[in-house]
Design goal:
The structure is a single chain. The protein contains five helices and five strands. With 159 residues, it is an alpha/beta fold. The strands form two sheets. The chain has a three-stranded parallel sheet. The protein has a two-stranded parallel ribbon with strand order 3-5. The longest helix is centred in the middle third of the chain and has 9 residues. The N and C termini lie far apart (76 Å). The relative contact order is 0.11.
Amino acid sequence: MKLNEINDNPGSSKARTRVGRGIGSGKGKQSGRGGKGQTARSGVRIKGFEGGQMPLHRRLPKRGFTNIHALDINEVNIGRVQQAFDAGKLDTAQPVTVDSLVAAGVLARARDGVKILGQGELKSKASFEVLGASKSAIAAIEKAGGSVKLLAAATEASA
C-alpha cells in the first residue's frame, strides 16, 4: 500500500447536500427551510417563544437571590491541618494563617479567608489566626494547648 492509495472506509463520509439547485434535486426553492419569514432567515429565531402563550421561564416562580456581599471562605478540618504538621509542611512555632495554609498546599488559594472546622484530631500545640472557627474546632485546639485568634473580615474592615 502506498500513500496515494489510502482511502476512507466506505460509507464513512457523506457528500454535502447542495441546496437551492432546482426542483428536481428535492432541496430546491427554499432549500429545506420551510416557508418564508423569520424562521427561514439565518441567525434569527425567538428563543423560548411559545406563540404568544406565556413562556415557561416566565410561568415558573422565582426564588432566592445571590448575596453580592457574601464572603468566599475556605473550610479546613483540624485533621487536615494535623496531616500538614505531620508531613512537616506547617511549622507549629508559627501561627497558622491563610497564607501559611496555601504555602503548605492545604488550600489551593486564599479567597476571602479560612474557617477551621472540628473534624479529625489535633495533637500539635499551635496558634491559629483565622477568619472563623467552629466551637468544636476551638475546643480541640485549646485541648491540644493551642490558641485561636479570630480576624475581622477584610471587606468589613474597609467599610
